[in-house]
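pinning this so it doesn't scroll away 📌
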Amino acid sequence: MGKSSYIIWQSIAYLLAFVFLYTGISKVYDFEGTRQAMHNQVFPNSVANFLLYFIIITELVLGMMLLFKPTQVVGIYGVFVMMMLFTLYVALVYFRIFDRVPCSCGGILSSIGWGEHLVLNLFLLGIAWIGVWRRGKGISY
């Protein structure tokens, strides 16, 4: 593997690690706000309760995995799947597929609308896809 491939891979891994760790830690720090925001979404309470913990734990675990070379590949695949799911949900909200449009209150993205959130998610999904694609092309790290 060339030096530039390694730098690209590490940049992708560390950028996504920062995003996932920052959002996970922010949710823990403002747990009550995160809980309220999750219960304001379109999910039933039982699903919201599960997602509250599942998303926080998954963000923190995947963020940590991206920091360490032995777990980076699994981490990038996990981030890609999570970003696909997050982006799908945001797109469904943005295109008003649900009966109501929940506010995006709570968390670090509370000041942006669903359209901006969708653009950000598509960008991060693209970054994760580049990592998965480069790995699929046989570029080892």
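📌 and the second one:
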Amino acid sequence: MIKKAIVLLTAALTLLSVFMVSPLKALAYDELKNTDPDKYYILLDLKNQIVTVFERDENGEYTKIVRRFICTTGRTELNPEDPEDKGTPTPQGIWKIGARERFGEFAAFDGTYARYWTQIVEGVYFHSVMYSRHDVNTLQSGPYRRLGNKGSHGCVRLDVEDAKWLYYYACPGTTVNVSNGEPFDKTVKSKLKAKRMPFNNYKAFQVNIYDIDELPNPKAWVVKDGAEIRTGNGSNDSVRKRVPAGTELELLQIAETWCKVKFEKREGYMRTAYLTFKQGTMMSREDADIIKTTAYMYSEKSTDAKYRITKVPNYTSVKVLEPDNDGWTKIRYWGEEGYVQSRYLTKGWGVIPEVMTEIMPIASYKEAYSHY
């Protein structure tokens, strides 16, 4: 009886703490609670399976811990009986937050859903543990119980309340450092795991983590004939359908490289450069300066790790500030200036950032992308 009372009290206190930072009457899906990409810095610790969110101290350094929670990252244990098994690790490096979706389906895995998606890079997201249907009552027990251990397809699984916090506060452009170089810290991980509820208690609890009704998803129009809708946001993902210019699509996620779209009741991903958010207005061009292979941007013309600023994903449109000079090109990306090796740049279909920002259909996104 005493043990049961303690469990119920713990659940009640956890519920109260979540509502203090994440009230029931949250903003609509298209309204961020923070639009400053520099407000927070996120450390994803692969070794300990911990996410830590920092904000700046009085000296401007990211030392103040805002939130800390356990996670599940990509699988790294290989099948010894399968010589071709490379695992599905979460990609290391420094990235910028991209798209978001409140309650989405995995385009490559029909019938599996998650809440509060926040993109790290390409097909890798922070999101909640999974659901069997678009229904908060179908939370899956296995992923919940395995939090704190590696095992995903690359995404970062979280408790619902933690995924929700990132969804609203980690706006596009926020820096995420995915690191495997942190020291082991069993104490912190044990404390975080000790706060978690048994699955049945949590399943009942998370049903009450909700938002006001979603607004209708915005529309987009295809500007390139034969534009591909793929199962993932990468050029190697399978093509589901090719559509002609002028086709109207429903926007589920928005980012500068890929958008998640819905067409004829099927979901998939399309290059943002093949779309416009305003019918009759081109927000892309065929001869834009784009990154052809994911590359680091450096503060100096050197590949020394100490000069790394962030990774720039392939297909990203960048503004060239100084043309090729000794194998290096100076660019601007998410408000920061730095150098990339010129061999990673090419001309191709890419967005015009100023136009994309101006016609952005989501108000708070427009504010966040003004830093782009």
